Amino acid sequence: QVQLVQSGAEVRKPEASVKVSCKASGYTFTSYYMHWVRQAPGQGLEWMGVISPTTGNTKYAQTFQGRVTMTRDTSTSTVYMELSSLRSEDTAVYYCARGGTSTWYRDFDCWGQGTLVTVSS
Amino acid sequence: EIVLTQSPGTLSLSPGERATLSCRASQSVSSSYLAWYQQKRGQAPRLLIHDASSRATGIPDRFSGSGSGTDFTLTISRLEPEDFAVYYCQQYGTSPLTFGGGTKVETK
């Protein structure tokens, strides 16, 4: 079955960086775009960006431009999301979510379990 | 950016009742590219409806979506105990992809 398994919780100090992984299984990794979405405690969902596992091309939300980097490793069917210059407002659960095939303008039909990133001095 | 406004913020209902959730967009959603997700406490969101009215795989038929343009609705015909959760709408027709603020369906 389709599964996205994310790395474990992280704690970082302000100004540090964090890198979260998302390992896909149960489908052809290169066939589907992968998105990242975050959710601050008690808040709603915020789209961060998307990566094409085939080409590595990315599209980031303006809010995160310059601070986020999404990459992938096709040999291990894993995508990564690195967020730098962390501040307390970045404390959130970060999700990877599978998107469409031929276009990234699609719904998210499978989500990872989430990774809590806590930013605290 | 398309802003999605969900209403009401909280819906207090009893099992067996009908739930009607609204999602209004600040501008027309391209090709009715609108989805609904259910999120239970401590869990990741789950896709319920895509393309405004198509049920995702394995979703019971008590869940239905409708609407086009700027006004969309999620209806749960008869609430089951497991349906009490937070529901989010999302548009994926225009970048950036955006979500509504959510509607919490709670037990009355």
Cα Rg of chain B: 13 Å
Strand coverage percent of chain B: over 45%
Helix percent of chain A reads under 10%
How widely separated are the two ends of chain B? 35 Å
By DSSP, the count of extended strands of chain B is 11
What is the alpha-carbon Rg of chain A in Å?
A: 14 Å
Number of strands of chain A: 11
Q: Helical proportion of chain B?
A: under 10%
Strand content of chain A: over 45%
Envelope shape of chain A: globular
| Distance, first to last CA of chain A | 40 Å
Structure description:
The complex is a heterodimer of chains A (121) and B (108). In chain A, strands 2, 4, 5, 6, 9, 10 and 11 form a seven-stranded mixed β-sheet that branches. Chain A has a four-stranded antiparallel β-sheet with strand order 1-3-8-7, with no helix packed on it. Chain A is mostly beta strands and 121 residues long. The mean pLDDT of chain A is 97. In chain A, β5 and β6 form a beta hairpin. Chain A contains no helices and eleven strands. Chain B is mostly beta strands. Helix content of chain B is 0%, strand content 49%. In chain B, β4 and β5 form a beta hairpin. Chains A and B meet through β10 of A and β5 and β10 of B.
Sum this structure up briefly:
The complex is a heterodimer of chains A (121) and B (108). Helices cover 0% and strands 46% of the residues of chain A. By secondary structure, chain A is mainly beta.
Topology:
The complex is a heterodimer of chains A (121) and B (108).
Chain A: E1 3-6, E2 10-12, E3 18-25, E4 34-39, E5 46-51, E6 58-60, E7 68-73, E8 78-83, E9 92-98, E10 110-111, E11 115-119
Parallel strand pairs in A: 2-11
Antiparallel strand pairs in A: 1-3, 3-8, 4-5, 4-9, 5-6, 7-8, 9-10, 9-11
Chain B: E1 4-7, E2 10-13, E3 19-25, E4 34-39, E5 46-50, E6 54-55, E7 63-68, E8 71-76, E9 86-91, E10 98-99, E11 103-107
Parallel strand pairs in B: 2-11
Antiparallel strand pairs in B: 1-3, 3-8, 4-5, 4-9, 5-6, 7-8, 9-10, 9-11
